[in-house]
Amino acid sequence: MRHGQDTDNVAKILNGRRDTELTDLGREQAKATAQKLAAAYSIKIIYSSPLKRCYETARIIAEFLHVDEIIVDEHLIEREFGILTGKPLADIPKYTDKILHSDGVNYFLEAEGTEDFSSAYERGKKILDEIKERHPQDNILIVTHGDTGKMIRAAFHDWGWEKGLMMPYFDNASVLELFNTQDIIN
Question: Using 50, 70 and 90 to split pLDDT, how confident is the model at 184?
Fold first, then answer.
């Protein structure tokens, strides 16, 4: 899932790895998502990005679902936005012309100091492999960021990062369900 709304989201600021807080709406989004998750899954463990907006989202959900363990993992941190960190979304074209337009979002592919999507995709593969190895039979909730979440989904489906970016936008507090289809019993 993606974290709830944070202060940079409201201001339409590219936060990247800025350690911003959830807004009141972001906290409410986390509670609402927790209610939906409780009705559908028995979550055993939550993994979270180390950034406040994700960890707070994870903590709210863990409290509601009575999950005792939140594992903070650096692989889940947002993509490094480099020179674009803290800049308004509208400023992306001022810093790069390497932009992919998808589902109403402008993804910058290159700019000074940014992490490229192929690296973020590899991080997604690595964390999925680690989680599968550590918790092969458990329902796990991963609380992360927009770009990282899209790369995790792309890695899970073995799509490649380009196709991953072309998939629908990943809103605040949205959940992307990933299943190992071999484990689904009719």
Answer: very low
What letter does residue 103 receive in the DSSP assignment? T
Provide mean pLDDT across the span 86-91.
96
Residue 180 has pLDDT above 80, yes or no: no
- The helix (H) or strand (E) run that includes residue 157 is helix 146-157
User: What CATH number should be reported for the domain whose range is 7-178?
Assistant: 3.40.50.1240
Distance of alpha carbon 54 from alpha carbon 46, whole angstroms: 11
Please report the beta strands in the chain, taking only residues with DSSP state E, as ranges in sequence order: 43-48, 70-72, 99-102, 105-108, 139-143
DSSP E strand boundaries for 49-111? 70-72, 99-102, 105-108
